[in-house]
Specification:
The complex is a heterodimer. By secondary structure, chain A is an alpha/beta fold. Chain A has helices at residues 10-22, 26-35, 41-48, 108-124, 143-159, 179-183, 201-208, 214-218, 220-227, 237-248, 289-294, 341-356, 374-378, 381-394, 409-416, 438-445, 447-452, 456-471, 475-479, 492-503, and strands spanning 55-57, 80-87, 90-97, 128-132, 165-169, 172-174, 186-190, 195-197, 232-234, 303-305, 313-320, 323-330, 361-367, 399-408, 424-427, 432-434, 485-486. The longest helix of chain A has 17 residues, at 108-124. In chain A, strand 2 and strand 3 form a beta hairpin. The termini of chain A are far apart. In chain A, 38% of the residues lie in helices and 17% in strands. In chain A, strands 10, 11, 12, 13, 14, 15, 16 and 17 form an eight-stranded mixed β-sheet that branches. Chain A has a seven-stranded mixed β-sheet with strand order 1-2-3-4-5-7-9, sandwiched between helices. A two-stranded parallel sheet of chain A has the order 6-8. The longest helix of chain B has 49 residues, at 4-52. Chain B contains three helices and no strands. By secondary structure, chain B is mainly alpha-helical. Classes of the chains: A alpha/beta, B mainly alpha. The A-B interface holds A 88-90, 125, 235-236, 238-239, 242-243, 245-246, 249, 252-254, 256-258, 260-263, 299, 301, 319 and B 72, 75-86, 89-92, 94-95.
């Protein structure tokens, strides 16, 4: 043992080791990241968290593997930074993979760090944000890497519905690694930077002969618009982290806490005349439901989720008198706002998230029904459509529906049917509530009269008008108590605020069970 | 054969007129460029030089921001309103209640 005078000062030693460990892959790795237009793992954490709020976990952890030369390639932190910090004052737990250190590959200890962070987050009841930039499983560590992934997926599943989980893809995320983001609640991608796929273009070429580029296969634009695997697409990393902060501002920290409140803004007014001119009374004329949403909710501020995927339904977060709500609206500008396979999946998942985290649901209903066709039927639209019914029936947060224009058939049941457990159903005076549209209904009910008439077109027109007179108004439904209140569009905000206040503290018991069996 | 030679003559004269006109046009353009174009080039170069001269640092910033906005290289601001979270966390209260009930059972 060296004499005391020759031993290094423990404080200096700590500083030196910390500094070395915090450098991860070092200056060269940092430059490589920057050359690729990417930030380093630590820069990303700095962008996400409030200044000086980060507490790092297990900075000195290294791989235990010695196979295939790993003993010479050890990197402090083992390619991932984990810890906790604050986002706008809210405690969050973070893992950020560092591509500069061992390619961000996931080995035994890398996984251990993430698992430990997940377990701490679940104890603390705080959201998890995982920043993924990894080459995948560390092949040198074999089955231990796979075991690590399994533990992470297991914890993702345990945490689902307990704490919000957000994944940010800012580099490659391939193979088994994709399943962690897929289990989490929201996936953010950056255009031109993020890549996510199970098998890469080379394997696809070898197996199927199909030629596809990395971007076409697993780029952010593809996953946000075509596959629906990602929810938000940012133009760059900075915008991405700002969007994450915005999303967190709507969410409670866990499934027991209330969502955060904000002050009631001056705009829009409770009586907003601009709303009178947005929805055309003619059922076949399209309008953008987002114009309605931004004129009703606080500050016109609406964070749309899955904006480019299944555009026939719009879902997202907004605030009503300072209180966050989940907003759902059929989009008449896209496929006339029908429900189909993709929009059903999008809607059901959103409803279940809101239900898990105590966010009331407000529906703007203008839906002609489910999309007909063999493609939809063969694709299982029955099963997918049933998810929407299941999700709404299962949800026991306040559920408020506003029938804006038409609400037909099974889609009426799903999005505004009292029988499904809606707490309040409102309607505009020009709302149409029926099993199907007047044209279709008249053709079926009066088939014989129309067929036997001397002038079938004239009789058809009369019968359509007769059906429309009876059902193309909300008063028949109101007579049966299936619509609570009929309002002028300009009073939408005040009516929704009252409906929300009335139902804010609702309690609804459910029979005890392990879990339901949603038609997946 | 009677009309062949006049045909050839006519074609030759026609093509000659066209090529002749093009050569004249080329000469006219070259002359115009020499006498008029050089003056204009000098003038525009002066104008560019004057425009490029920065009047202040602020102007550069404004121009860069505007260019960034139109080229979509600048990150748009994402609005996040200030929010209040309940300090009396239900999570914490429920956890405490759970711990107590577990102790009672022992």
């Amino acid at each position: 043992m060296p004499p005391e005078s020759e031993r290094p000062d423990p404080i200096d030693e700590l500083k030196a080791l910390t500094s070395k460990a915090q450098a991860l892959g070092g200056e060269a790795a940092r430059e490589r990241q920057h050359k690729q237009g990417k930030l380093t793992a630590r820069e990303r954490i700095d962008l996400l968290l409030d200044p000086d709020s980060f507490s790092e976990l297990n900075l000195f952890v290294e791989t235990r593997s010695t196979d295939f030369g790993m003993d010479a390639r050890r990197s402090p932190g083992d390619g991932v930074i984990t810890g906790s910090g604050h986002v706008n004052g809210q405690l969050v737990f973070v893992a950020s993979q560092d591509f500069g250190a061992l390619g961000g590959s996931l080995g035994e200890m890398h996984a251990e760090k993430i698992v430990k962070m997940q377990e701490l987050a679940m104890k603390a009841g705080a959201p998890i944000v995982t920043i993924l930039d990894s080459g995948g499983a560390r092949i040198q560590e074999g089955v231990l890497a796979l075991h690590g992934y399994a533990q992470i997926f297991h914890n993702n599943t345990q945490a689902s519905g307990v704490i919000p989980q957000i994944s940010i893809i800012v580099g490659p995320c391939a193979g088994g690694a994709v399943y962690s983001p897929a289990i989490t609640d929201f996936v953010f991608m950056v255009d031109g930077l993020s890549k996510m796929f199970i098998t890469g273009p080379e394997v696809i070429k070898a197996v199927t002969g199909e030629d596809v580029s990395v971007e076409e296969l697993g780029g952010g634009a593809v996953h946000c618009s075509t596959s629906g695997n990602a929810h938000f697409l940012a133009t760059d990393e900075r915008e991405c982290f700002e969007m994450v902060k915005k999303l967190l501002s709507f969410l409670p920290s866990n499934n027991l806490d209330d969502p955060p409140l904000s002050d009631t803004p001056e705009w829009p007014p409770d009586e907003n005349p601009e709303l009178d001119g947005i929805v055309p009374a003619e059922a076949t004329t399209a309008y953008d439901v987002r114009d309605l949403v931004t004129n009703v909710f606080d500050d016109g501020d609406f964070l749309e989720v899955h904006a480019e995927f299944a555009k026939n339904i719009v879902v997202g977060f907004a605030r009503l008198k300072g209180r966050p709500v989940g907003v759902v609206g059929n989009q008449p500008t896209h496929l006339a706002g029908v429900l189909d396979i993709d929009s059903s999946d999008k809607l059901a998942r959103f409803v279940r998230f809101c239900d898990a985290f105590n966010l009331p649901l407000v529906n703007f209903v203008d839906v002609p029904g489910y999309l007909p066709g063999t493609q939809q039927e063969y694709g299982g639209v029955i099963r997918h459509g049933a998810k929407v019914l299941f999700a709404y029936s299962e949800a026991n947060v306040p559920k408020i529906a506003l029938i804006v224009r038409k609400s037909y058939g099974g889609a009426y049941i799903a999005m505004s049917g009292f029988g499904l457990g809606y707490d309040r159903v409102l309607a505009y005076p020009f709302a149409e509530i029926a099993v199907m549209g007047p044209e279709g209904a008249a053709n079926i009910i009066f088939r014989r009269e129309i067929g036997e008439a001397e002038d079938p077109d004239k009789v058809r027109g009369e019968k359509i008008e007769e059906y429309r007179r009876l059902f193309a108004k909300p008063y028949t439904a109101a007579k049966y108590g299936l619509v609570d209140v009929i309002i002028e569009p300009r009073h939408t905000r005040s009516a929704l605020i009252r409906a929300l206040e009335m139902t804010a503290h609702k309690r609804e018991e459910r029979p005890e069970k392990k879990h339901g069996n949603i038609p997946l | 054969m009677d009309s062949f030679i006049p045909g050839i003559l006519l074609t030759t004269i026609g093509m000659g007129v066209v090529f002749g006109s093009l050569v004249v046009l080329m000469v006219v353009i070259l002359l115009l460029e020499r006498f008029v174009g050089s003056g204009r080039r000098e003038a525009s170069a002066d104008a560019v030089a004057q425009e490029a001269a920065p009047e202040s640092d602020d102007l550069d910033v404004v121009l860069a921001a505007a260019a960034g906005y139109f080229l979509e290289t600048e990150t748009p601001e994402v609005y996040v309103p200030p929010v209040r979270r309940n300090a009396n966390s239900v999570w914490a209260r429920t956890a405490r209640a759970g711990h107590l009930s577990q102790r009672r059972r022992r």
